[in-house]
Amino acid sequence: MKQNPITFSRDTKRPFHSKYRPTHFDEIVGQEHIISYFKNVILNERISFAYLFIGKHGVGKTTMSRIIAKALNCSQPYNGGACNKCVNCINISLGKSFDVHEINAALNTGVENIRHIIEKIQLSSVHSPYKICIIDEVHMLSLNAFNALLKVLEEPPKNVVFILATTEIKKIPNTIISRCHKLFFLPVDKMSLASSISKIVWIEKGNITNKALLHILNCSEGSLRDAINLVDMLMINDSSITESNCSFLSTHIPYSVSNLFFSHLVSGNIFSTLQISLYIQNKKWLEDSLLTQIQKMLENEIVNSSSSSLKSQHLISLWQLLSKYHSYNSCSTSIFSSFLFELTNVVSKFSTSKNSNTFFKKKKVPSFIKIDDIYIC
Ligand SMILES: [Zn+2]
Fold first, then answer.
1. Of 149, 128, 29, whose CA–CA distance to 71 is shortest?
2. d(CA 130, ligand 1 centre) in Å
3. Residue 197 CA to chain centroid, in angstroms?
4. C-alpha 1 to ligand 1 mean position (Å)
5. Are both 31-184 and 190-249 of the same fold?
6. How far is the CA of 70 from the centre of ligand 1 (A)?
7. How far is the CA of 319 from the centre of ligand 1 (A)?
């Protein structure tokens, strides 16, 4: 696996997400396809005037924008990346470059904000090859602001690069989208998240159990920033992170609990699944996260089972039921109770059907496993 260096900083008071923010392409995790694309773009000097970064929060869109700004304006670039040592790189890192302008459209939605930044980029660059305009949360701009932006995208000044970033592409006018090169950021995969978190914990001289790590991965759902923020919060009180001391940070259900629920569910052990449901409700964990996790587990199980088998039919019935309840905006207690009632019917129907023993016997969960044994670590 590729090892991504995380820069060590002696500044112990900075929040982790700032302290460990990548400063070079090689430090970014989970977006290798975009790094590779931009290295080629820069090496071959095929720079477009507008890029649109699309992806969920915390996956590196803003960080990537700043690193690209450095790579484009670096006076000593190496292999498509920035040196991080020249005056241009240092000024961009410090937010002091006259040639890189960044606004957050969530805080600057109006047309006057866009006009102001357009005025700045009309001036020729001071020390750099490119004038770069980064607009974060671009979907938050007003209609008039989008129209002002469209005008400049229709006739872009020479050597100006726009980098627009959004979590909600549907809110951006097609006239803007069609003028940009679109790049889709992926949720950060669990291996990369785990590697990054483990390194930070190690640098901070802490330790983390495997179950706690898994819990943080599930809570952060592919957002590296969310994962790092969770670790930061946990390490303020205690350098040892365990699943039990991190559960208060989130109403998400620990993976070990949903995994036990799943094991009992596919084993036809409805009594145990109801017991775990009660445990989840007493803990006031979000039932939504149980449905999400179980649905993913079912999908994996369905892919690995023979399409015509009895097991597959059972799994598909369960998946259809999960999908029905997952389509609700939120899972209230009454909706969750209805789900459990229907779940009982589906499992009972299958467990009394002919030949069902063949599958259920294979999937029997040892009776000595209790939920607290699994959850408490
Ligand atoms: Zn440089």
1. 128
2. 13
3. 14
4. 28
5. no
6. 7
7. 52
Q: How many angstroms is it from 124 CA to the middle of ligand 1?
A: 20
Q: How far is the CA of 80 from the centre of ligand 1 (A)?
A: 11
Contact of 340 with 277, CB cutoff 8 Å: yes
For residue 78, which phi and psi values (nearest 5 degrees)? -135, 120
Q: Give me ligand 1 centre to Cα 133, in Å.
A: 18
Q: How far is the CA of 127 from the centre of ligand 1 (A)?
A: 12
What are the residue boundaries of the structural domains of the chain, listed by start? Answer: 31-184, 190-249, 255-375
Per-residue pLDDT of the chain (377 residues; tens, 9 = 90+): 444 444 444 456 788 999 999 999 999 999 999 999 999 999 999 999 999 999 999 999 999 999 999 999 999 998 889 999 999 999 999 989 999 999 999 888 889 999 998 888 888 777 789 999 999 999 999 999 999 999 999 998 889 999 999 999 999 999 999 999 999 999 999 999 999 999 999 999 999 998 889 888 888 889 999 999 989 988 877 788 887 777 666 666 777 788 888 888 887 788 888 888 888 888 777 777 788 888 888 888 887 776 666 677 778 888 888 888 777 666 677 778 888 888 888 887 776 665 555 444 444 444 444 545 444 33
* CA 311 / ligand 1 centre spacing (Å): 59
What number is the ipTM of this complex?
0.99
Instruction: Give residue 114 CA to ligand 1 midpoint distance, Å.
Output: 28
Do the Cβ atoms of 55 and 186 come closer than 8 Å? Answer: yes
Q: How far apart (Å, rounded) are the C-alpha atoms in residues 357 and 144? A: 65
At the second CATH level, the architecture of 190-249 is Orthogonal Bundle (1.10)
Q: How far is the CA of 76 from the centre of ligand 1 (A)?
A: 5
Distance CA 189, CA 4 (A): 14
* Ligand 1 mean position, distance from CA 137 (Å): 27
CATH number of 31-184: 3.40.50.300
Alpha carbon distances (Å) from 115 to 108, 178, 238, 295, 353: 11, 21, 48, 47, 69
